[in-house]
Amino acid sequence: MPHSTTPRHIAIIMDGNNRYGKAHALPTGAGHVKGKDALDPIVEHCLEKGVQVLTVFAFSSENWARPKVEVDLLMDLLAKSINEQIPRMDKYQVRLRFIGDRSGLSADLAQLMAQAEAQTAHFTRMTLVIAISYGGQWDIANAAKTLAQKVAAGEMAGDDISVQTMAEQMALADCPPVDMLIRTGGEYRISNFLLWQAAYAELFFTPTLWPEFGTAELDEMMAQFANRERRFGKTSEQVQGKQVANER
To answer: Which key words are in the record (predicted)?
Structure first.
């Protein structure tokens, strides 16, 4: 076997819901409903494949700028999805987590998120992370703010700030780095998603709209991932030499 062929952490930008709805002449917001339904089989498939963490981008910090009717619909869908996921997480023994700035969320939604996290905190088969009101730049700035407060309080020196101490303050600090980052919908950008955590992620882009993205296409990407050489700054010879040594 080459390097770890199963990604520990997969992150997905679930793009294309609105375009799917328009292409199929669905009522306003129905594309997002189809997108919500598309997540369940992906979660189950990742669980079967031995993925440790699946992180999905449900609502970005920039999405607040969308029309209010769409934002309200998305918030309602998020609440409905969380209520649906809690019993599913219990069935499959999956921990549910949320990352993002919760200050702009309604009290009811924030409470529901906290409740879901508490109810599933002891599960260890896999972690499903839902990014709500999340932005990678916000994440990094928030970590820097925390370290600055520690320095100001005399808990650490400025010279103690390092990549490691920053990493410890990031969202998902307790999870492995992102191995695979997938974007559906045909766009070729990562849109401020997990900028720190995906520093060495393998990137996958597909024109498939999120509601049409299925396990077969995910398997194709995972097969490609297994055959990619991940060097992490080293030379190909160094990586291949390490693999040979590990196989002896």
So the answer is: Cell shape, Cell wall biogenesis/degradation, Magnesium, Metal-binding, Peptidoglycan synthesis, Transferase
Dihedral Cα 111, 112, 115, 119, nearest 10 deg: -170
| 192 labeled part of a ligand binding site | no
- Known catalytic residue: 108? no
> 218 Cβ partners below 8 Å, 6+ apart?
42, 45, 46, 182
Please check if 9 is assigned to a binding site. no
Please say if 15 is a catalytic residue: yes
With beta carbons less than 8 A apart as the criterion, state whether 180 and 222 touch: yes
Tens of pLDDT along 85-124? 999 999 999 999 999 999 999 999 999 999 999 999 999 9
pLDDT band for position 243 (cuts 50, 70, 90): low
Pick the CATH number of 9-135+177-247 from 3.40.1180.10, 3.40.50.1820, 3.90.78.10, 3.10.310.10: 3.40.1180.10
**Mean pLDDT, rounded, of the chain:** 93
142 among annotated binding-site residues: no
DSSP secondary-structure letter at 26? P
